[in-house]
Amino acid sequence: MTDLSLTILPEAADDAAEIERLYERTFGPGRHAKTAYRIREGVAHELGLSFTARIGTLLVGSVRLSPILIGTTPALILGPLTVEPPFRDRGIGQALVERSLAEAKKQGHRLVVLVGDEPYYARTGFKRIPEGRANMPGPVDLSRLLVAELVPGAFGGVSGRVRPNSKR
Question: Over 50: is that where the pLDDT of 45 sits?
């Protein structure tokens, strides 16, 4: 009998090619033009905060966190988050996000931002960033710019341009 249980594991360096193929299948080539993707290109994601989801040995999902600054405040940007289409609507994406946020909090991070659907990400603590508090270097639907405070009140007083944090 085949083991079909879900396993969430820290991303390993040798997962990169398999994850890139997953992104290609789920997002297509247009993903590189999106503003959040452009920010993530400016800095390497954190392997210790990025996770894969597997059913048996099959990679079915991935989430990554990368260091950014909001103004002068260190934070993380979540994404890409993806799950193979046949495995969606099974809680895999939410499990990946929960695991990455828990690890980020454990490691002392305070804020995580993303561009995504608020109804989906609100389940894991994300809320819309008030207009004018953060901006990105490219077109972004501001109603989709979200933040999760890993420490209560961590977003208080934070504002500015979102950009890669290559000094980590």
Answer: yes
State pLDDT tens for residues 125-154: 999 999 899 998 888 898 999 999 999 999
87's tokens = 């495995």
Strand partners, 146: 114, 128
3 state SS of 22: helix
- At 167, is the pLDDT very low, low, confident or very high (cuts 50, 70, 90)? confident
CA–CA separation, 75 vs 22, rounded Å? Answer: 26
The CA distances from residue 21 to 17, 133, 148, in Å, are 6, 35, 28
Between 121 and 43, whose confidence is greater?
121
Q: Which run of H or E residues covers position 24?
A: helix 16-27
Nearest alpha-carbon partner for 39 in 82, 72, 70: 70
Residue 63 structure tokens: 């989430």
End-to-end CA distance of the chain: 45
CB 72 within 8 A of CB 95: no
Cα–Cα distance for residue pair 21/80, rounded to 1 Å: 13
Q: Give the C-alpha separation, 144 to 133, whole Å.
A: 13
